[in-house]
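STRUCTURE REQUEST FORM
Protein name: Solute carrier family 66 member 2
Source organism: Bos indicus x Bos taurus
Requested output: structure tokens
Priority: standard
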Amino acid sequence: MEAEGLGWLLVPLHQLVSWGAAGAMVFGGVVPYIPQYRDIRRTQNAEGFSTYVCLVLLVANILRILFWFGRHFESPLLWQSVVMILTMLLMLKLCTEVRVANELNLKRRVFSAADNKDGEVRVPLGRSFLDFDPHHFWHWSSFADYVQCVLAFTGVAGYITYLSIDSALFVETLGFLAVLTEAMLGVPQLYRNHRHQSTEGMSIKMVLMWTSGDTFKTAYFLLNGAPLQFSVCGLLQVLVDLAILGQAYVFTRYPLKPAPHAAHPASAKAL
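Status: completed
Returned output:
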């Protein structure tokens, strides 16, 4: 009788916990980018944030959505990709606007200097996605160019997926590519620490946030029966995070190179 009496409480409580976990999965990945967005907006300086982070996450989440068409998985994971894509587009828009504004200020100063010296000074020219210049890839002068690139990639990848959707090998490979791309976001920081034999300039709190987020995400994958690709790459992310924490411990306890260096700008990653 007592167990039956508690049933009315446990069922909605379990449902509430499930909703909370799903909400954390959908929106938790974008949380680290909120203070980054506000800081760029406040300082009007985007030098500390690499837009290649946006590129990697856009590719990973577009591929994950395409993977869903071949093999359905948890809806929160699908919505997480949608939210992350929108977030990365917002980050790109802000970074592009700030960079272009700074370039315009530079041009004004250059022209002013040229007038004073009566000399010819070259200024940076506008760069466009439609120029198809590999040297300027992902360094364009307009947010519309980034949108065109994302749409072009989505169209090509979507068409290939449409033609190969009946191939189990293609679908499984697509899933591994999607989550493996995102799982590699911590590797540049790991490599940089190893190359410099130091972790100076790297925030330990940031890495702890990565580790806690990736651990929660991996546990969510395992408990909810997500496709194998998610669980394997989630475990890989946790291992990379632990390796970076291990570097922080070793290099702090046994410093080999006292010269300080800045943290890798592309080391920001999703939870």
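Reviewer notes: Residues 6 and 150 are 51 Å apart (CA to CA). The radius of gyration is 22 Å.
Form closed.
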